[in-house]
Amino acid sequence: MAKIGIIGGSGVYSLLEDAKSKTVETPYGKPSADIDIGFIGDEEVAFLSRHGKKHTIPPHKVNYRANIWALHSLGVSRIITANAVGSLKEEFPPGMMFIPDQFIDFTKRRDLTFYDGPDVYHISAADPFCPEINGVIKNVSENLGYSTHASGTYICIEGPRFSTRSESNMFRQFADIIGMTLVPEINLADELAMCYSTIATITDYDVWSDKPVETKEVLRILKENEDKSLNIIKQCIPKISGEKHCNCSGRLDEAKI
């Protein structure tokens, strides 16, 4: 039973020692991939590749309910995810590590909840991210010398296309970063009273900017950001493996109608 789960790209797998793959069946179908369970230091960790182990699943087709259910069924109560995002603000340049504490849902067709009836729950989403893990990520990232911004809003769009310039200019009035995978992943984790935090790594400015971005540069930043995320995760795990000091586990209290 792993208490900590990681959702991200295949690079995370390299952090695991003595990893074994486990196939998990869920009421919602198959997760994106088998779940790898191994160790980071002394801590047992469950890792799930969000887009499949060969990155064959686009953001709008990820089976988010199966993914979160599978991790929960293995005993996971705290989740750290890695997300590549675009920047909506000049002051958040490519290469920066961003730790959101709010989100805006601009998805359109995704299954957003476990509670389709007959049990009806309305959970609070006022503070959707785990403040304790967010704080740990911030401290670790800064101690590693990475340019880091803690707090801000992630707007999640449906995808798989990117925004038009008009959409991007609208989004930047309300949010700081933009991506396609946060929602409903975070909603579902919250519905199961799990802790959830994101290491968002900025790869480029979104299309509101008139600064052209070359593919070669984006790929370089993607690689650098992946290495940063892995370093942060490796140091965060032992710091969040003990007793919780947050209220995430109480999200379902008084939420049932």
For the structure shown, list the relevant keywords.
11-stranded mixed beta sheet, 25% strand, single chain, 257 residues
What does this structure look like?
By secondary structure, this protein is an alpha/beta fold. The protein has a single domain (4-250), classed as Nucleoside phosphorylase domain (Rossmann fold, 3-Layer(aba) Sandwich), CATH 3.40.50.1580. The chain has helices at 64-73, 131-143, 165-171, 185-191, 215-236; strands at residues 4-8, 17-22, 35-40, 43-49, 78-87, 97-99, 102-106, 148-150, 153-157, 177-179, 195-205. Strands 1, 2, 3, 4, 5, 6, 7, 8, 9, 10 and 11 form an eleven-stranded mixed sheet that branches. A hairpin with a 2-residue loop joins strand 3 (35-40) and strand 4 (43-49). Helix 2 (131-143) packs across helix 5 (215-236). The protein is globular. The two termini are 31 Å apart. The mean pLDDT is 94.
Beta strand count: 11
CATH topology: Rossmann fold
> Ranges with pLDDT <50 over ≥5 residues?
none
- Total number of helical segments? 5
As for the number of domains, it is 1
At the fourth level of CATH, the homologous superfamily is: Nucleoside phosphorylase domain
Report the span from N to C terminus.
31 Å
Task: Give the CATH class.
Answer: Alpha Beta
Approximate helicity band: 10-25%
CATH architectural type = 3-Layer(aba) Sandwich
Radius of gyration: 17 Å
What fraction of the residues are assigned to beta strands by DSSP? 15-25%
Main sheet: strands, sense, barrel: 11 strands, mixed
Choose one word for the global shape: globular
